[in-house]
Amino acid sequence: MAGKYFDEWQVGERMEHEIRRTVTETDNLLFSTMTHNPQPLHIDVEAARASEFGQILVNGTFTFALMVGLSVGDTTLGTLVANLGYDQLVMPKPVFIGDTMRATSEVVELKESKSRPNAGIVTFRHELINQRGEVVCRCLRSALVKRRDG
Fold first, then answer.
1. pLDDT tens digits for range 30-70
2. What is the secondary structure of 106-129 as a DSSP string?
3. pTM for the complete prediction?
4. Is 22:100 a contact under the CB 8 Å cutoff?
5. At residue 112, what are phi and psi to the nearest 5 degrees?
């Protein structure tokens, strides 16, 4: 399903995204090194074993990026003008290598754009959920989205 236009969304609309993704060691290591994040909890097995987690903790910015990525196909693919911001980002549970993630989204606000009559602002609440049904990441994303009638 391609993304929707601003005028096709309704507040309260909720979706469970079909794509699921199992996090691998390569995902975590590559993302950590690409972003120059030397945190031992992410890249050093021995340091991670000695931590309260007892294992490698997946990089939180990867977790956040995966959540947004899993949502794009159903929300803004082909209709996005720009992401305007992310708010209230929380990570209530850790993510570990081998966890399988799924995402949900809900439209929480629709706002006309004052500067762009051909677009509007959709605010989504995204959640990333692991195989145990635990929310591991949540945020609000404000996206400037094209209007179909614009």
1. 999 999 999 999 999 999 999 999 999 999 999 999 999 99
2. EEEEEEE-SS-TTEEEEEEEEEEE
3. 0.93
4. yes
5. -65, 145
AA identity, residue 107:
V
Task: State the Cα torsion 99-100-106-111 to the nearest 10°.
Answer: 70
- Separation between Cα atoms, residue 112 and residue 114, nearest integer Å: 6
Name the one residue in this structure whose structure tokens are 């050093």.
44
Residue 143, both tokens = 């996206």
Number of continuous H segments (helices) and E segments (strands) in the chain: 4, 6
Cβ atoms 3, 144 nearer than 8 A: no
- Give the Cα separation of 137 and 90 in Å (integer): 6
pLDDT at 147: 95
